[in-house]
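Chapter summary example.
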Amino acid sequence: MASVDQSPGEIGNFAGNPILWYNVGVWGQLGFAVPNPGQRQVSANSTILDLVSIIGRNLQAIMVHDDASLRRPPSINTLIRVHKLCMRVRQIIGGRAVPAGTPNMEPAHNVPDTEPFRVFPAPFFQVRNGWMREYAQLAFGAISEAMQHTDNGQPFEIGVAFAGLLGQYFQRIYRLMSTELFGISVAMASDPAFVLTDAQIAAYDPTKWFTQTELIDTVPALGNQPSAYDLQPLSEGIIVSQLPALQPYPFGASAVAATSAPAAPTTTAAPSVPPFPAAPTP
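The structure predicted for these 282 residues follows.
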């Protein structure tokens, strides 16, 4: 909602929950980002804590791949990682979601303590690959939803509503990847139980769908690809309460000029996969 005297094109009073720019040393210059936790820094729910870390760690590993710096279709290596992340999320939420009519597990004396969320900064704002950037945007949104959900106030269990809310983001990722990169029909890929077969994955060939312009790209700037050792402070995860004051990315401004002075960043046979739970109705 904008202010009463707001002119067209001006920014309103409310920022929402945008993905945050991890403007710390060289990571800010490279356009790294973290999900927006809102006002939530801790959780009493072990399942949500694990989900936030699992998604964050995998997203970081996917986005630091050199595919992210190229505008051509991602390699099969990246797509297999995306496929596995979507299946992993589907397994967890599908296997742990408790229907509203089923009693939750309740402790008598063992009340778990709250634990802080950890986030895993990942490339985003300067990612040149449009497919990967869109998948990352959805994954960051899912993490933000998880960190701010009401189920963080209860130990052990997640509800079907939570599972549907989180699952819709990964179902969208999986549908987009399946239809645009593997040539699967929208009707088939929209089924929450749909899983790409090994044969469909092995048949990946972007030359069937894309123009020559889309298949060729200029070589990106070299030397901006961090190694596993460079990423070690970030790959351990950063406790949300230890993050510096972060802001949205300054689109339209000189992001490099706005970054903090460069410094060393400090931080603290496959099972059957259930379908994605239904997204919550309005």
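To summarize the output: The chain is about 40% helix and 5% strand.
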